[in-house]
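re: ur question from earlier - yeah i can do the single chain one, its not a big deal. heres the input i used so u can compare w yours
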Amino acid sequence: MSPLLIIALVLVTLFIAFQIYVFVKSKKSVGNPIPFDTINNEIANKIKDKKSLIYFYSPSCHNCKKQTPIIEKLKSEFQSIISVDISKDLETARAFNIMGTPSILLLGTKTIEGVFVGVKNESFIREKLHELT
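and the output i got, formated as tokens:
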């Protein structure tokens, strides 16, 4: 086997392993309390005592550019959606253990109820929003 092929296989394996790690780590957040004491006060006030969806994105993220228009469309129907640009509010992203973008968190009034990493279609997000109400 050529050294180039071995390097390519190692890189693919590492990429897949990282994706699995992000998935598993994000699922471990479900059920955790909302970290009100370590998040941006403006966001804390918006989500306090409300079920909410927080969308974490980065302007330089290719997949976020696909996800953001869907989120913006849904914001006109659902007041419970909050967008967080991690390049401007890394503190909040870290408080919620965001490992990659785009990420969507479903929040109950006190706990994290769902975590989804990657692009999700409108019907999936809409379904999750209806589950919150």
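Residues 3-28 form the longest helix (26 residues). not sure if urs matches, ping me
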